[in-house]
Amino acid sequence: MASVRPWLIAAAAGCVAVALAYLPPRGAKSSGRSVIDVQAPRATPARQRAQAVADEWRKVDASLQLLTSRRRLQEPVRAAAARGSSLVVVAESGNVVVAAPRIADSAAHLAWRQLGLGETKISVALVLQWADWSTSRDRPRPERGLAGYLAPDSTYRTACVAVVAAGPYWTRVLVGEPRGRFAFADLVRTLNAGLGPCAFYAAYGTPGAPVRSWLAARNWDPALRLDAGPRGLSNSMIGLADPRSTWYWDAIYTLPTSGVACLAGRAEGCRAAVLEGASDAITRSPEIVVVDRRWGRITRLVEEQRFLSDVARAVGRDRFLSFWTSSQPVDTTLAVALKRPIGEWTALWQRDFVRGTPIRLGPAAPLGGVATACGVALFAIAIVAVTASRRQVR
After folding, report:
1. Is 72 helix (H, G, I), strand (E, B) or coil?
2. Is pLDDT above 80 for 370?
3. Which residue range(s) make up the domain with 261?
4. Within a domain: 386
5. Where does a domain end: 206, 241, 273?
6. Same domain? 181 vs 229
7. Is 379 part of any domain?
8. What is the rounded average pLDDT of the residues 178-187?
9. In terms of domains, do 184 and 226 share one?
10. Which region among 3-7, 186-190, 379-383 has the lowest average model confidence (pLDDT)?
11. Shared domain check, 275 and 130
12. Is the bond preceding 243 in cis, omega lying within 30 degrees of 0?
């Protein structure tokens, strides 16, 4: 009976240790810190249907505005091309097109030059859509941060139209009275991003059918920014520049499975995330793209809107053009341009944008649990050793 007592003591001590490590203390007060963001109440089914109808109306309205704007801007685009300019900047308010403020025109042309664009074969018409403060309720209110793009087609081969919602802030700054103070560089960056796919058309021409179908299937997400962003200073909700910071897990969980795998450095996940939609046969004539440009939008990869821009800078103009205009499948031509597997290159590219603590996938025990288990195991081994040393054979 005496030899059984140490085992009972060891078992009881192990249970106490595990309980102290994992069970919350009774009567403890909350720290007041919430690790779960409060979400807005879910809309009723009727409200959801109304929102879906409103979204469809906005898309149709945006398409109509793009077609109307291209018809109105034919003569200004031709006149600008005759003067040696491939960029036309105008403003639109209440379906009336007027000349853009001089400061907006200067900022847009500066952004154009920063992208390395000059006189191009495909001209770009940038339409700034001022905010509407009317209280009319006969139509859905326009969403802030939306932009629409109408690519060249068989009817108009040399013009790309971009309609960008200026939003209340820039509307007040540029046309409000009195004009407030603002940073000119911020306006340049805003208009730079507003050029979107039209900047790629101006820089590299019309893409081949496989690339165009691939981009159309992804709503042109890999080619929304022609400029390269600063590494380690991501504008997304996921990437954090400070290695001491933690991940925004709620944003990570909005990524598809392949995107999370790519963020963890898995090449097969990166390949799947990049080539999604590459085999879909999608044709749109005319090709109309409506993009949500608001901060925090999560797609398939972190900073996906810069993907093709960074590919072009990594491989050079000639190799990128061979991919851009090729009639071969996207997976083949992109791997040839990169001169390495697509998944491996993309995994390294993602690592440049997010330099925080790496994501580790798969089951893993918490550090506290491992320490507790090791402590219990060492304690049990010590009890066994002491018991065995005192045991006598009679």
Report:
1. helix
2. no
3. 215-281+295-362
4. no
5. 206
6. no
7. no
8. 74
9. no
10. 3-7
11. no
12. no
Residue 36 lies in a domain: no
Q: Does position 215 have pLDDT exceeding 80, yes or no? A: yes
Residues 265-315: tens digit of each pLDDT: 899 999 999 999 887 565 555 578 888 766 656 678 888 888 999 999 999
Max Cα distance, the chain (Å): 112
Cβ(241)–Cβ(232) below 8 Å: yes
- The terminus-to-terminus CA distance of the chain in angstroms comes to 15
246 and 193 belong to one structural domain: no
Q: Give the Cα-Cα-Cα angle 53, 59, 65 (nearest 5 degrees).
A: 135
What does the alpha-carbon distance between residue 222 and residue 69 come to, in Å, rounded to a whole number?
25
Query: In the prediction, which pLDDT does 232 show?
Result: 45
Rounded distance, CA 297 to CA 112, Å? 25
Residue 225 and residue 127 in one domain:
no
Rounded to 5°, the CA angle 324-328-333 comes to 55
User: Is the pLDDT reported for residue 177 higher than 90?
Assistant: no
Domain end, chosen from 176, 206, 236, is at 206
Query: Which tokens is 278 given?
Result: 């590459």
Q: Which of 374, 369, 373, 308 is closest to 337 using CA atoms?
A: 308
Residues 155 and 254 in one domain: no
Count the domains in the chain. 2
- Point out the least confidently predicted range of 1-5, 55-59, 141-145, 199-203: 1-5
Distance CA 126, CA 149 (A): 9
H or E, element range at 50: helix 45-72
Nearest of 56, 221, 188, 29 to residue 112 by alpha carbon: 188
Q: Specify whether 199 is located in the same domain as 223.
A: no
Query: Residues 129, 164: contact at Cβ < 8 Å?
Result: yes
325 occurs within a structural domain: yes
Q: Are residues 101 and 172 in the same domain?
A: yes
pLDDT digits (tens, 9 = 90+) for 18-27: 666 655 555 4
CA angle (302 as vertex; 228, 112 as ends), nearest 5: 25
Cβ 108 vs Cβ 126: under 8 Å: yes
> Long-range contact list for 92-96, CB < 8 A, 24+ apart?
92/65, 92/127, 92/128, 92/129, 92/130, 92/163, 93/129, 93/130, 93/132, 94/132, 95/68
**Cis bond upstream, residue 178 (ω within 30):** yes
